[in-house]
# Entry
Amino acid sequence: MNRTKFAITLMASLFLSPIAIADVTNGKNNHSILQTTKTTALEHVLSSFGDLAVQLPADGKEQFSIVMLYDNQCKYCNEFLMSVPELTANGVTVYVMPFLNHGVYSPESKTMYLAWSTKQPLMSLLKNQLPSQPDPHTAERIFEFTKFAQNQLQVTKTPYILLENGEFIDGFVSPDNLITYLKNAS
# Structure
């Protein structure tokens, strides 16, 4: 992240909530992690919108859980999704939430509405086995969640990862760096 963009993000954050900053370095990229509130966004998202979550459980005993806001058109989301087996093998449960990164009425978002209208959204996307029409209730819930994420969590891009301790990662992070961070933060 360049210094100007970081400074603007930091300045804007000062008006939104108290912050704590850490860096998770992923090769070429640095990702700022900002603490939001004591009641974590992860808990709020799962309690209010858990019906939309696709749970990918940890192998064995769960040590950590994260929520990933996902858009199927985002190459970094798909890259992160491919790393989920490494995360689950290390005791991380991943909840995948649909986020309409291209706008709630865009043609790209229609695929998300359709996929989440099935019993297995991620498999439906992978196999391109989608219904012809979205479930109206599911579509409405995805719309509500996207608006909540944009307005309350200030999400502007994906992947966006919510952590149990109230922090978030805005952008891609390697599974190794995420696991290391989770272990050090606990």
The first strand starts at residue 21 and ends at 26. The beta strands are 21-26, 29-35, 54-56, 64-70, 92-98, 160-163, 167-170. The chain has eight helices and seven strands. The two ends are 26 Å apart (CA to CA).
